[in-house]
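pls design
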């Protein structure tokens, strides 16, 4: 079956960096658009970044633009989220997701989801 497994979360001080990874299996990874979303306690799931199947097109939420970078390595069936200049408001569970149709910002359009990885940014 399809599995998306996130890793790389943790505790970091404000201004620090983390790189999240999401490894896919059970799907033809190179044909799927990939997205990163996050959800903080008591808040709705929100879009962070997305990348198309070939890695040639990306999009970001305004809140992370210029600080986060999404990339992918289809040979490794992995998508990454490099997070720099982290802020306490970036604290959330981060999820990766796969969509066969669009590298979009709407979470309910994605086909498959990982289990999430916790990112905590201390002030």
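designed seq:
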């Amino acid at each position: 079956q399809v599995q998306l497994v996130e890793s790389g979360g943790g505790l970091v001080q404000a201004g620090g960096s983390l790189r999240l990874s999401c490894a896919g299996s059970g799907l033809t990874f190179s044909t799927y658009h990939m997205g990163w979303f996050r959800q903080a306690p008591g808040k709705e799931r929100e879009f962070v970044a997305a990348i198309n199947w070939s890695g040639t097109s990306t999009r970001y939420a305004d809140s992370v633009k210029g600080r986060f970078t999404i990339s992918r390595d289809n040979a490794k069936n992995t998508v990454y989220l490099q997070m720099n200049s982290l802020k306490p408001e970036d604290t959330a569970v981060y999820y990766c997701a796969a969509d066969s149709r669009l590298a979009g910002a709407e979470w309910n359009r994605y086909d498959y989801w990982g289990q999430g990885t916790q990112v905590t940014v201390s002030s």
